[in-house]
Design goal:
Number of helices of chain A: 4
Oligomer: heterodimer
Helix content of chain B: 55-70%
Order of helices and strands of chain A: HHHEEEHEEEEEE
Largest sheet of chain A: 3 strands, antiparallel
Number of strands of chain A: 9
Bound molecules: protoporphyrin IX containing FE, FE2/S2 (inorganic) cluster
Distance between the termini of chain A: 56 Å
Radius of gyration of chain B: 24 Å
Chain lengths: ~190, ~425
């Protein structure tokens, strides 16, 4: 094959004064390329071994009973090793979340798109800045300037729909995958 | 550098080995005859001090690792067991924990020495860059070590720092999951941090060997920043520098021991004696003091990716520093304007450190922003300009000239004047 790609006279050695390509250069390149692919293939198991293992991935979904959570209160449940905030919003909080002008939001999403039932807000309780757990679950906690949550780490304020309003966090608190299994129970995951 | 003749070993065993593996010749060459500029001051001892600290960390770390258990259920308790039940466990742990701080003190002084005397300039660029790599490896090591006791600060420090990588678009989240080995900082994370915390100091050791090898090619800089012109400008490493460094090491160790025995938790954070709780973030997360200036830079930028880039940028400017500083004169002694800005930078670093420990709001946020802006202004604008605008003072003709007034008695050489104070 290689021979056909070379003009006559540039056999195994570089043509004198020519471009200097030869069958040997081709062999070097080909060997190098095969070696590089082989090395990459050999390295991959090492790298991938550090990704989540099968047992870590095999995460059961969990059921949460909402009945005991009174209006205006909130609970925190653990799911996939992360805190999930479940807040029973009162009329004022729902109203605040709805009447915001989307144009002034950093990560604009309407309140409707973040809840399945207006009185229940369910979000992953991890600040989208650098992963702290924001305050605002307990009645005594500071809730920030927008009545939602306040992240003490670097001062991010979230509103009553868990949307970022002020501070360094780039995005809203994440809404996890969940479904209502009855009027007062949800399944996360 | 050393144009020394091959040593004659008397011991036949040494001779036999040396003719097959010239390790004794090498040691003699690099640590006995190695010519040091005769005018170096005590700031030149901090390299040796940092080296001693690395050895102390590896020695104490090794025996701690024999008692420590890297599992989220028992890590905290295993450290408490080291403190209460293991023979001298309290001592070994306090020596290790405070050792990290003392190591950083030594290295930061060592680096500011380099900044003041222009030790990063030709022909020492690679030497300097290896130093910056050592700093990075140290930071990674100390960060992962701090996670091991699995207290609240361990957990939340690890969470915040690993989350830095999520700032990068697209690849960010997969990288963070990969770093964690899960969906949050958890047992897989602790395990790998322990493995890496054990490994990295040895990488550090290798870097230190390269750093010293590069040093012994160019030779040491000195407070005047001019090259030695001959043997009259230098003294042999041993005994002059070994003794001087040895004295500095002892003084340093006294300060270190004072921390270990009288204020072992002064530099730490009390929250780290609370076991890690993934559901409760401490009200005020602060990293260890040696990360504070960088932490202040991170928080000063009101944008996640921007903050992360600025923080890494703060170290990246050190890598390209040899090319940012356009002045040919090394030592601040002869740079009247740069000298003042050097001190402003030093104060800036302290102010940033202080702001990093304060809540990121109001006036502290403002101060951190000004400090960050100044930091980059110093390296990216001032240094390139000053080299062009500043008029340096006249340099002395040689190192011994200012001492001997006119370079007299040159031929006598260093050995003949042991009492001459450099
Ligand atoms: C560059 C050198 C090193 C630095 C800067 C460093 C730093 C640290 C720091 C800051 C801690 C946390 C201390 C605490 O709050 O309890 C720590 C813990 C630990 N380190 Fe290191 N370390 C170094 C080398 C080593 C080596 C070489 C080993 C093992 C061979 C090791 C093993 C350990 C162990 C087992 C712990 C957990 C016990 C404890 O918390 O005291 N370290 N390290
Ligand atoms: S982690 Fe919440 S503001 Fe930084």
């Amino acid at each position: 094959m290689a021979q056909t790609t070379h003009p006559p006279g540039t056999g195994a050695h570089a043509a004198p004064g020519g471009e200097g390509t030869s069958r040997r250069d081709f062999l070097y390149l080909a060997t190098g390329a095969v070696g590089a692919v082989g090395a990459a293939a050999a390295v991959w198991p090492f790298i991938d071994s550090m990704n989540p293992a099968a047992d870590t991935l095999a995460l059961a979904s969990i059921d949460v009973d909402l009945a005991p959570v009174a209006e205006g209160q909130a609970i925190t449940v653990t799911w996939r090793g992360k805190p999930v905030f479940v807040r029973h919003r009162n009329a004022k909080e729902i109203d605040e979340a709805k009447k915001v002008n989307l144009g002034e939001l950093r990560d604009p999403v309407a309140d409707d798109a973040r809840v399945k039932k207006p009185e229940w807000l369910i979000v992953i309780g991890i600040c989208t800045h650098l992963g702290c757990v924001p305050l605002g679950q307990k009645p005594t906690d500071p809730r920030g300037d927008y009545d939602g949550w306040f992240c003490p780490c670097h001062g991010s304020h979230y509103d009553t729909a868990g949307r970022i309003r002020k501070g360094p966090a780039p995005a809203n608190l994440v809404v996890p995958q969940y479904a209502f299994t009855s009027d007062t129970a949800i399944r996360l995951g | 550098m050393a144009q020394a003749h091959a040593p004659q070993f008397k011991n036949p065993v040494v001779k036999w080995i040396d003719s097959r593996l010239p390790i004794f010749t090498m040691l003699d060459h690099e640590y006995n005859q190695y010519p040091m500029p005769r005018n170096v001051n005590y700031l030149w001892a901090f390299g040796a001090i940092a080296g001693i600290m690395l050895v102390v960390m590896i020695a104490t770390g090794l025996v701690l690792a024999m008692q420590y258990a890297a599992n989220t259920h028992i890590a905290f308790d295993s450290v408490e067991r080291i403190m209460r039940d293991v023979n001298y466990g309290w001592l070994l742990r306090y020596v290790h924990a405070n050792g990290a701080s003392m190591f950083f003190i030594a290295v930061y002084i060592h680096m500011f020495r380099g900044l003041y005397y222009g030790s990063y300039k030709a022909p020492r660029e690679i030497l300097w860059i290896l130093g910056v790599l050592i700093l990075l490896a140290m930071m990674a090591t100390a960060f992962m070590g701090y996670v091991l006791p699995w207290g609240q600060m361990s957990f939340w420090g690890a969470t915040v720092i690993t989350n830095l990588f999520s700032a990068f678009p697209i690849v960010g989240d997969p990288i963070v999951t990969w770093l964690w080995g899960g969906f949050s900082v958890d047992n897989p994370t602790l395990n790998r941090f322990f493995a890496l915390h054990f490994l990295l100091p040895f990488v550090l050791f290798a870097l230190v060997i390269l750093h010293t090898a590069a040093l012994h090619v160019s030779g040491s800089n000195n407070p005047l920043g001019i090259d030695p012109k001959g043997p009259q400008d230098t003294v042999p490493f041993n005994p002059y520098v070994t003794v001087k460094d040895g004295f500095a090491v002892v003084v340093f160790l006294i300060v270190y021991a004072a921390f270990v025995f009288f204020a072992p938790n002064y530099l730490g954070h009390p929250d780290n004696y609370i076991p890690a709780n993934p559901l409760v973030t401490p009200a005020h997360i602060v990293p260890e003091w040696y990360f504070l200036p960088f932490y202040a830079i991170l928080r000063a930028i009101p944008d996640k990716l921007g903050g992360v880039l600025a923080m890494f940028g703060a170290i990246a400017v050190l890598v390209i520093l040899p090319w940012l500083d356009t002045s040919k004169v090394r030592s601040c002694k002869f740079r009247p304007i740069y000298r003042q800005f050097f001190w402003i930078l030093a104060v800036d670093a302290l102010v940033l450190g202080y702001a990093g420990a304060m809540p990121a709001e109001g006036v502290w946020l403002m101060i951190a922003r000004i400090g960050t802006a100044y930091y980059f202004f110093h390296f990216l604008v001032l240094l390139p300009l000053l080299g062009k605008l500043e008029r340096p003072l006249p340099l002395p003709a040689s190192i011994c000239e200012p001492v001997l007034k006119g370079g007299g008695r040159v031929a006598a050489g260093a050995h003949a004047k042991p009492m001459e104070k450099a």
